[in-house]
Automatic annotation (TrEMBL):
Residues 123-142, 149-204 are annotated as: Disordered. Keywords: Endonuclease, Hydrolase, Nuclease, Signal. Residues 124-134 have a biased composition (Polar residues). This is Endonuclease. One of its GO terms (molecular function) is endonuclease activity. Residues 177-190 have a biased composition (Basic and acidic residues).
Length: 293
């Protein structure tokens, strides 16, 4: 046998072995963050870490164009909306109960820097997965499309669709309530970067696009079929129990100013791979917001 080949193979074997050892050591390093509730003033730091350090698991924006979205390609306006509705409805083969949402959110919104925690939507706080419940400093299940807007409750369907359900501090969730989304208001002390007034809520900048794309996903997914109301955004606030939420013009602006980041893309992928098996098309193709509305 050629001695050069023997030497080359030996070097490759040593490199692989060294890489394996390094990987094993890296896996054993524990997360530095604790599993306790973080103070509210750390919200911005936790959110920045969560949205920048996650580097794997998110699909490329166009990786599903030739398969999942093939029937939507080349369409605009109502034709695009109708096509996307058929796609995301027919592929949603996994549907959760409201109690199952707890465990799903512990995975979809896991802090990439601490696997024992989740990131709360509005506060940006990294908080123990096990501190979910109904106490003021617990986290609960926030319906981004408020369930009273269309009165769909928490039965399996829009009330349990985790594309718009997110973990949030109980008291901050209560402050948001069922308000529409708009700019302005007074600052929310417990959730820096958020504002609210009598009829609207403005989330922090880092998740404004996330909120917009969740709302628009719901408008495409639920169009009056399946026994559920036809959800549609409008340009109003104070929509009450009507199946509408606004302001559409502001949501479009938020989606453009805050494009999908790695955390949001990863979340979309986890929902697709493990839970509902459908996707939020506006995360994969944010330009479709302007094509439809």
């Amino acid at each position: 046998m050629d001695n050069t080949r023997v030497t080359r193979r030996a070097r490759i074997a040593l490199a692989i072995a060294a890489g394996t050892v390094l990987t094993a050591v890296a896996v054993q390093i524990p997360a530095s963050a604790t599993a306790t509730t973080a103070a509210p003033h750390r919200a911005a730091v936790a959110s920045a870490a969560a949205h920048s350090s996650l580097s794997a698991g998110a699909a490329d924006d166009t990786s599903y164009d030739d398969t999942y979205y093939k029937d939507a390609e080349g369409k605009t306006g109502q034709a695009l909306k109708d096509s996307l509705h058929r796609i995301i409805s027919s592929t949603q083969t996994g549907k959760l109960t409201y109690s199952q949402v707890w465990d799903a959110l512990k995975e979809t919104d896991q802090d990439p820097d601490n696997s024992e925690n989740v990131i709360l939507l509005y506060t940006g706080r990294s908080q123990s997965k096990n501190s979910n419940g109904g106490n003021p400093d617990d986290w609960n299940r926030e319906h981004v499309w408020a369930k009273s807007h269309g009165d769909f409750g928490t039965d399996t369907g829009p009330g349990t669709d985790i594309h718009h359900l997110r973990p949030e501090d109980v008291s901050v969730n209560s402050i948001r309530g069922n308000k529409d989304f708009d700019n302005g208001g007074t600052k929310v002390d417990e959730a820096p970067g958020n504002s609210t007034d009598d009829d609207s809520f403005e989330p922090r900048d880092a998740v404004k696009g996330d909120v917009a794309r969740m709302i628009l996903y719901m408008a495409v997914r639920y169009d009056g079929g399946d026994g559920f109301p036809d959800l549609e955004p409008n340009d109003n606030v104070d929509n009450g129990s009507q199946p509408h939420i606004g302001r559409l013009s502001v949501l479009k602006q938020w989606s453009q100013e805050d494009p999908p980041d790695t955390f949001e893309k990863h979340r979309n992928q986890v929902i697709f791979d493990k839970y509902q098996h459908n996707r939020n098309p506006f995360i994969d193709h944010p330009e479709w917001v302007g094509e439809i509305w």
